[in-house]
Design brief:
mainly alpha
């Protein structure tokens, strides 16, 4: 997986209208298009969460006392950065529109087994 920070560098975090007809050109179905985008967004969400937890673990302090709460500026900056990231659905939609998502369909034979 590519680094999320570099991947979304120029991406606008605001929601905007999309050309649905243009998005359906490849799949011929809006439902298939949304399914592909949704699955990718879930993958991104897990990756972002995992990346954030790994970065925050570096600053974790194990303490038995609840009263001792320390403020770590680096930890706060990392958290703020991840809060400002675009929504995973926006990232996945942009990847789909740019043709960066690769998807395939299972064979009809395999679907009968499930």
């Amino acid at each position: 997986m590519a680094d999320i920070k570099n991947q979304v560098q120029g991406l606008d975090p605001n929601v905007r209208a999309r050309d649905v007809k243009g998005m359906v050109d490849d799949t011929k179905s809006i439902y298939e298009t949304l399914n592909i985008i949704t699955k990718r967004a879930k993958q991104l969400q897990v990756d972002i969460k995992h990346e954030l937890h790994n970065k925050l673990e570096e600053f974790a302090v194990t303490s038995d006392s609840i009263e001792e709460v320390t403020e770590n500026k680096e930890q706060i900056e990392i958290s703020k950065f991840y809060e400002r990231l675009p929504n995973p659905v926006l990232i996945a939609t942009e990847e789909f529109n740019q043709g960066e998502l690769h998807y395939h369909y299972r064979d009809a034979k395999n679907e009968d087994k499930f």
